């Protein structure tokens, strides 16, 4: 049944006593929020909490963090927050300065100063620069600013030489906007232009070409999609020699159509909608999410294939495989230098790097970059600058290894490789010498081996007395990989119980994620969603079976889709956990498509407006699972549910309703906290982040540390 043909669900469900909490800024709802916040703060915010908050803020504000940069022309751009600049500085430098131990920066925009001057708590959300004429420096940029940390942004034109806003320049009001330059005097703008211009997912349905000096609402529409789709996007590719305008109809999270502007008409790249398409110079790259029959053969899900774009548009279906997954390996990401394609591969959730050579038929070879049980990020420095054409950035991180940034050059085939040179090293923020990282596999209910990482002291006593924190996500083909976190180190790994036991951290790689490519993700879609929750529960049981912990000492945390995971742990597996932190969560899966951006996630979860879908969606809707009786003698674990008023992606109302309903159902210990701003991230600056993280970690530690 087509969801668009389903009868609308009534706004007020007769069996929902907490719909009034959906009035995000309503007086009664906010009074309830303030009362719950006061209770949580009175319970938790003591001297011990403040010490943890200060320790985490020290990590977040540390001067020895690596300032990540993007090269544009001769400059390296960075956005930076610290104690003196909580809202941040947009700044730049040159290579010699960046590579030095004491980098001198040129400040382009002080967001704190801007916020104070304009009386709006601006949150920096990125930039898009205009390509200059050959030989000229970059002069113009579009700056995205969120008024509250949410997804809605204001867009303004900035002069990179005058270091000020362009007088009478482009300026778009706050909305969920995507924008692309089309030369110096025009933009492609996907935004809210008034009635009928948004999809049901709250994103842009139409794209307009806005010329300098004209009103966006009066500008001609160049592309549009059905309102039941997620969003419309148009971008101009200004790569010299490969200039083109591309439109994407994002049907749902896993289906889209890509078209190239040919004269005045859009010319589609004819592939199944679940084949991901990426255009780069004269090539088109494909990554199918399900088996794809093309050119007389079948490409496996997760394959990366390439073809000549003009030939493919003309009907030639010859494609070349660049990467083919196997049972243990999947493609995490890729990027181009001038002469090579860099592939970041996960093998049993540890990174490997391959180099593909287009001149040799896309043959691949390994790039030796580091140790197992680590994560590598590899990206081109600037493939258009002849001086850096085949150079790459390599970021290395691990649970116990502070992040390192190196820069190297891809050697031509047959030339001896040289190791990349370290440019920056982040500082260590907890004592890791006595710790070890191990990988284990649990057996889920259907027999699937599910990997997880365990970080603990060496020779960990296996007597069940260790406080353990599990972290999970399991959705949207997102992979959780090893990474260094001074926050986790200080808030959990370094801490000791009264008996001297230190915390154990566990990262769960459950189905629904992308750790093994599309097959791992699709195994937990829609009616199979329960597999993600069975996987997480299997890891919890494995930790107990191995003697690492017992349920009363096992904490779990997750946010967003991970918050939905936590909701299902509360209601489906309460006997396995001693405490749960559930952040910015989805929880009411009956109404999620009608709240904030929820309609865009139907491909992941199903459509509750379709009766056949609601039959399975209800089984993983925590808000409705509360109506089921728990087994005798089992109670909900102590739970903290937290969110942000300004979250315009998931929204705060599901968290509110879940906490209220759990309290009404007599749950012994349910706590709630809601930040007023911060958007879906839950925080807009480092101080807010430290407070949010300390609230979650301190709550969990106190409940399971004994």
From TrEMBL:
UniProt keyword terms in alphabetical order: Hydrolase, Protease, Serine protease
Protein origin, superkingdom: Bacteria
Pfam family, one: Peptidase_S9
InterPro entries found in the cross-reference section: AB_hydrolase_fold, Pept_S9A_N, Peptidase_S9_cat, Peptidase_S9A, Prolyl_oligopep/macrocyclase
Domain Peptidase S9A N-terminal: 12-233
Domain Peptidase S9 prolyl oligopeptidase catalytic positions: 498-703
Protein name: Prolyl oligopeptidase family protein
Annotated source species: Arthrobacter halodurans
Lineage of producing organism: Bacteria, Bacillati, Actinomycetota, Actinomycetes, Micrococcales
